[in-house]
Amino acid sequence: MEEKLGFTLFPGTLNVKLTADSVKMGKLLKKRAGFEILPASGYCRGRLFKAILNGVECAVIVPEVVGYPENIVEVVAPVNLREKLCLLNGSLVEVEVTP
After folding, report:
1. pLDDT at 24
2. Is 84's pLDDT higher than 90?
3. Which domains can be identified in the chain, with CATH numbers?
4. 3-state secondary structure string across 35-75
5. Confidence (pTM)
6. 79 secondary structure, DSSP code
7. How many whole angstroms separate alpha carbon 79 and alpha carbon 50?
8. pLDDT digits (tens, 9 = 90+) for 11-49
9. DSSP state of 18
10. Which residues contact 62 (CB under 8 A, 6 or more apart)?
């Protein structure tokens, strides 16, 4: 993933709960190519999309897991997003998927 994104990942993800309108956009996102994640044994497959979250370069991961909630996306970045953006549970963020 780091090779495809051009940055070293901070360990862990930020789970973002989508609004109802964003869930519709998330469904459209699943139809875009993105980068395929082919993980090591024991980890799930998925798609990776470059993005910006509140001005910070990041990537959205859409896991390809049966039963994974449609209203949740996982975000990875080169920094701890929760600390950098002073996020608390329930904080509002804006994620922009970039081309």
Report:
1. 73
2. yes
3. 2-97 (2.40.30.30)
4. EEECCCCCCCCEEEEEEEECCEEEEEEEECCCCCCCCEEEE
5. 0.84
6. S
7. 15
8. 989 999 988 888 777 777 766 778 888 777 777 888 899
9. P
10. 26, 29, 30, 34, 46, 47, 48, 49, 73
